[in-house]
Amino acid sequence: MLKIFNDLTQRKEEFIPLEENMVKMYVCGPTVYDDCHIGHARSFIVFDVIRRYLEFKGFKVIYITNFTDIDDKMIKRANEEKTTIFNLAEKYINSYFEDCDKLNIKRATEYPRATELIDEMIKINEILIKKKNAYISEGNVYFNISSFPNYAKLSNVNLEETRSSENDIKKKNPHDFALWKAKKNDEPSWSSPWGQGRPGWHIECSAMSQKYLGDTIDIHGGGRDLIFPHHENEIAQSEAYTGKQFVRYWIHNGFVTINKEKMSKSLGNFFTIKDVIKKYKPETIRYFLISSHYRNPIDYSEENLIQADRTYRRFNNTIILIKQLIDSKMKIQKDSDQFKHLLKITKDKFIEAMDDDFNTPKALSELSELIKYINKLESQEEVPSLLELKQAQSLLNEIGDVLGILPNDTISDELLNNLIELTVEIRNELREIKRFELSDKIRDKLKELGIQLTDSKTSTSWKFI
Predict the structure, then answer these.
(1) Distance CA 339, CA 370 (A)
(2) Where would a tag sit more exposed on the chain, N or C end, judged by fewer CB atoms within 10 A?
């Protein structure tokens, strides 16, 4: 039974979607004014794993993530680069997809852009005004939070102790938030019943989720920094508009920190995904970012990434070793009840961990016994049966797919493996004719390239180091 920690109720709850075998999921996407950093990557990967696990459980997932392509940051950067917000958005949306493809993040069902749904936002605002949940002030439209008694039910913030970032004499209440902003000089604008202007940030997500997922959605995700005011405001305007519950399960991921301080562009303490991928394999980055529970912060450091790289390589080398054992003609294959039991226990414990609020660090730890057992087979003459080895291969591939840590470039990965196998075969032929100097040179050169050969009496195995 899958249980999810629901930030709305502050407890773990059994996950029961609104429609049987169907999950409607919305995750706040990036504001596309710059390259994404590792803090963004964590959110992308966390919800990618959640989506993958739901699909593993048999659910059809409708997954929507948006692009914020109109807001203050977009306007400021477009002016700096002397371009339009549309050209700027196109540039960084392409950059986003490059990053996501390298990180093996599955494509969403839809990627709506805020500027594509201006009419829908205007319609929502008109109805909120009609219902007295919103009011017009000097060409702006504001949501009246006093009209929504359950305001702050997600964040539980005390508004009297919280300063508004939009303190404005045009508002009735300092915490009222903008649904529509009147046009300013040199800003993009659209026509509306209240004059030229542009949408507020919060209404954008409500309009996009409503269009693609309907009035009530199963899961809404994002970083913890979005709980207040963004997600709080989404709830208020959406539920006031439809009269229905907006989201059933709220999920928020913890921050990536550097020296225990949140990584962010505003603080200048960030590394872009592109920078980190130059140094580490994308699978290593994924492994690192799921090595801590998604609700907890994770500290970015070279030491932590090196450890993640080491652990990931052990996982990947185990998959390579299983293939070598399956293909080996030199090992004695025999049914093993112990191995069968270990496979069953590993899968059961993996599912148990993931069913417990997507506990990826525990899920990864449950693989350790199986990986240890398989690696011991390398030096043994007797190994489990062909069927059991293929079951182990299937299990590790299945788990690797759920976590998204299988090598991303399957074609080049397979080609590399075949080239290494060919090199090992040629080296073994050299050893048979006692050309040891040349065979040792091949072994040493491969080690310099990060491939370690291990000779036994009957065969040679290899792994990445």
Answers:
(1) 9
(2) N
Distance of alpha carbon 280 from alpha carbon 162, whole angstroms = 41
Q: Please give the Cα distance from 352 to 363 (Å, whole number).
A: 8
Neighbours of 426 (CB within 10 A): 13
Q: Which CATH architecture has domain 313-408?
A: Up-down Bundle (1.20)
Query: CA 49 to CA 402: how far, in whole Å?
Result: 6
What are the residue ranges spanned by the domains of the chain?
Answer: 17-278, 313-408, 409-465
Residue 274, SS3? helix
**Which CATH number applies to 17-278: 3.40.50.360, 3.40.50.620, 3.90.1150.10, 1.10.10.60?**
3.40.50.620
Give me the pLDDT at residue 414, please.
65
Position 411 scores a pLDDT of: 43
Distance from C-alpha of 441 to C-alpha of 273, rounded to nearest angstrom: 37
Q: What is the largest CA-CA distance in the chain?
A: 91
Structural Rg of the chain based on CA atoms: 27
Starting at the earlier edge strand, list the strands of the sheet with 256-258.
261-262, 256-258, 298-299
Q: Which amino acid is at 33?
A: Y
The whole-angstrom separation of Cα 366 and Cα 193 is 59
Helix extents (H) in 300-405: 302-327, 337-355, 360-365, 368-376, 386-403
pTM of the model: 0.88
CB hemisphere CA count around 272 (13 angstroms):
11
The residue among 436, 463, 432 whose CA lies nearest residue 447 is 463
